[in-house]
Fold Cystine/glutamate transporter-like.
Amino acid sequence: MRVSKRESVTDEGTEQPVKDDAVHLRRRIGLLPSISFIIGTVVGSGIFIAPKGVLMNSGSVGLSLLVWTLCGVLSTFGALCYAELGTSFRKSGGHYTYLLETLGPLPAFLRLWTEFIFIRLATYVSLAFGQYVVEPLFMPCAAPTALVKLVSMLGVTFVVAMNCWSVSMAARTQVLLTFIKMFALILIIIPGIMALVNGKSENFQNAFDSDSFSLTKLPLAFYSGLYAYGGWFYLNFITEEVINPNRTIPLAVIFSMVTVTVCYVLVNVAYYTMMTANELLMSDAVAVTFASRALQGVAPAIPVLVALSCLGALNGGFFSSPRMLFVGAREGHLPAIFSMIHIRRQTPLPAVLFLYPLVIIMMARGEIFQLINFASFSRWLFIALATLGMIIHRYRFPDHPRPFKVPLAVAVVFTIVCFFIVGLSLYSDPWNTGGSCALTLSGVPVYYLTVKKSYIPERWKKSLELRDKLGPADVCHAEIIILQVGKADID
């Protein structure tokens, strides 16, 4: 087996030919793919299923639109904080890396632990993909649950295969699917706004009047809205593959989040223009119901566009999440096999394949809104901890290079709001969020029994210290044995 000289990339993102016999991830993601990666991951199933959850828990049309706007502002604040973290710590891994660098190994390990348990984005995006593919075939009857899950599994299988095959192919697919999903949003916005301009505004009268408003349910409305905006942090999972991250990450974040926030608010205005609040709550596929009224000529195309939108978010999730597992294994928090890369394709093949059965199993847990509430607790807890760690790191290491620096007030407001939502959600939905909290804390004994290594018998340590016992040549040899598919000829 021979490996040729490769092109490496400096921290500034400039490519230089150097002698490098190691198999490594390479910088291939420019500005347009980065923007497509954020928008394509954020705009998935959320805008097509979350309006029901936001309205159900906010209680009125006006308050739901306010929640959508505030969720966009809050997500933009968080994305700006992560832009600072991504340019301060140039390693991939997102939440895990920032918790490790600022708060230590235990919070970072717990973030990995929850990724194993919840597999958030891929699970409910894949279910939404299956729902939008199958439901139009059975309307007005309900689609069979088993068939929805089967189609969801086929979508997951396609995305996994593509991410195992080629980084470039996955990136190009993401760009293409992003343009498709933006076209779908525009197709919804234009007829809705035109109807509103022409005087169809009866659904907005007394928009804030509601007998079902409850302060305790409001965090769950934010959870649904923030779920729709979820994905703004996934570019940070692949920092080591971004060309010139000091420039690319901030520009991609700002452009993407402003675009998504404006589109999301306008899409919800379009929804309410054509549907009453009760009609929206009764619909399991809001975009399909909207299309049947406002886009009768092209209504059959809407479910296809929404399904492709979900597929783009699913691709983004499977592109990024394995990178966190890859970095965690590289730091010694996971088995060494997850830090291995396919020697020809430069993809983190073991990490991608490991997530595949976990997502399939997670699909059987329950319906989408239960999964959102169950998993959102840990997501926002660790995001809040990461931005808190950023503030602490600023205080402890004021001279640390920070090419992009977010205003301190933005970081403080975002962190406080995240902790408030997390805390109040324990009161609003103690069963789901309490279970999520318990499963998150269950990683503490696992950390002390596996990572710390001083709490386990000596004979067990041998199986956990494979990476420590192998030298660089042996690790490369192990990668070749485990990952080689046929004869690799890398020139």
Summary: The domain at 28-483 is CATH 1.20.1740.10 (Amino acid/polyamine transporter I). Residues 1-21, 466-491 have pLDDT under 50 and may be disordered.
